[in-house]
Each structure stands twice: as C-alpha cells, then as structure tokens.
C-alpha cells in the first residue's frame, strides 16, 4: 500500500519518486506472477466434453494448460488460439489466451482477450480479478516512476472494472494528490469512506486532504511549527503536556481509533505502565 499520505502530500512539491529500474522490476514480476500463478486457485473447470465442446477442442485446451504450466508460452498460445478457432463462442479459449499474453508482456492484447471471455461468460470472476490486478499493477508501477497521468489512466480502468473496490479508490486518491488535484482526491476518498466505513485509515486520509484543500499553506498542509512561532524543522517536547511521559523506557507505540470517535489515538507501551493519548 502507498505510504503515509501526510508524508507524501507534504513533500510532493519538493521531491520526486526515484526512477530506478530496481523499482520497476518487482512490480512487473508481481504482475507476471498474478497472470501465471495467482489465478490457479480460480481455474475454471473444463465443461463436459460430451455436452459442451468437441474432442478436438478439449484436447487442444488440455495441451495448452500443460504447456502453460511448463512455461512454453508460444506453444500454449497456439493451442488456445486453436480452441478459439474451433469454438469462437467458448470463453475458455479467450480466458487462457489472455493469461498467456499477459505473461508474454502483451498487456493490451491480454486484457482484450480477458474482456472477450467476460463478454461470453459474465460469471467468469477470475478473468475480472485478473483484469483488475493488471490495471492496479500497471498503475502502481507508473505511480512509483512519477508518471502520474499514466497512473491515473490505469486506475481509472481499474475503477471501471470495480467501481467500489478499496484499492482502485485509494490508489486513485493517491494519484490525484501527486497530481495536486485535491478536489479529485477528496472525491475519491469520500466514495471510499462511504463504501468502506470500517477502514479508519481512509477517514484519516480524508481529513488530511480536506486540510490540504481548505486550511493548508502553499504546500497543502498547515505548518503547525511555524504557527507556534518556532523555526520549521525543530521538534518540540510535548510528551509531558500530553501525558505520555509516564515511563522510563518506551517499548513500542501504535496509532489507532481506540475510543471509536473517528480520530487517531496514541498508545505507548513501556515501563512501568501504558501511556494513552486521545
């Protein structure tokens, strides 16, 4: 998941995301893993050959699956293309050919085949999930490389696939923040909170975006240190004031909405007692 929204937004005009190949490779690797391995558990059962397909279709389909499992992609591609020629109305051929093309890096072709499979069989949820994960993966890759318009396009496609999903809405909001479109970010987060009210993080992010839009300085967020008349960048000791200095050695801390009032609270674990601030 994208990192702390406050940190991202408050520095968006000062820093850029590193454009390193080492950033790019893990995203692509995970995308290929989704296409090749991640959907295995959702593999559709081959229909009864007596009732649904010819023996030639079933034979080509099984050969294609075997070749795909052994990563012989060109040969698997030919078998699934043969399935489509034998029965253009069967979703299975398009579904498996789409998987092969994604692994080959032919993203647009793979997505088109998966959409065709869905058109023929709207109940093929695994195809929809793979389309969604492909768009999300490409969007994250573009976002990490600083290609914000490209990321927006991929996340828009993800939203078209799943208009209420947490990840498409959240990533669209993050992209809008990087594009300095706080209005769009607020709209995406408002939709996300309405659909996923149990996720405290979304509500907190929405508060920060509204602060950027309506109360912020030139960089979006108010400079609380400057407001108090101190030099920016200096830390101020407030533990005693907040009542969280009750220990001689801190062990860990956590932010959460412990009292369920919609705001983040702080719990600090140490010796001899637990400190709590809300």
TrEMBL record:
Pfam families: TPR_16, TPR_19. InterPro entries: Integrin_alpha_N (IPR028994), TPR-like_helical_dom_sf (IPR011990), TPR_rpt (IPR019734). SMART domains: TPR (SM00028). This is Uncharacterized protein. It comes from marine metagenome. The lineage of its organism: unclassified sequences, metagenomes, ecological metagenomes.
């Amino acid at each position: 998941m994208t990192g702390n929204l406050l940190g991202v937004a408050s520095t968006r005009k000062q820093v850029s995301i590193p454009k390193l190949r080492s950033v790019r490779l893990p995203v692509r690797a995970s995308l290929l893993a989704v296409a090749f391995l991640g959907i295995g558990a959702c593999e559709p059962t081959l229909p009864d050959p007596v009732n649904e397909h010819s023996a030639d279709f079933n034979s080509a389909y099984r050969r294609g699956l075997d070749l795909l499992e052994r990563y012989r992609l060109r040969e698997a591609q030919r078998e699934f293309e043969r399935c489509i020629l034998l029965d253009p109305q069967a979703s299975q051929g398009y579904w498996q050919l789409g998987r092969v093309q994604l692994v080959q890096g032919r993203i647009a072709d793979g997505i088109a085949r998966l959409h065709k499979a869905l058109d023929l069989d709207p109940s093929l949820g695994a195809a929809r999930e793979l389309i969604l994960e492909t768009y999300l993966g490409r969007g994250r890759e573009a976002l990490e490389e600083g290609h914000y318009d490209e990321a927006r396009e991929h996340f828009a496609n993800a939203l078209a696939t799943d208009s209420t999903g947490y990840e498409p809405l959240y990533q669209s909001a993050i992209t809008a923040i990087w594009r300095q479109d706080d209005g769009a970010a607020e709209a995406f987060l408002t939709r996300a909170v309405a659909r996923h009210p149990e996720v405290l993080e979304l509500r907190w992010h929405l508060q920060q975006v509204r602060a950027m839009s309506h109360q912020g300085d030139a960089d979006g967020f108010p400079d609380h240190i400057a407001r108090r008349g101190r030099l920016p960048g200096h830390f101020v000791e407030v533990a005693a004031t907040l009542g969280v200095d009750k220990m001689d050695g801190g062990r860990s801390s956590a932010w959460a909405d412990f009292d369920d009032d919609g705001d983040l609270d702080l719990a600090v674990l140490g010796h001899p007692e637990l400190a709590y601030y809300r």
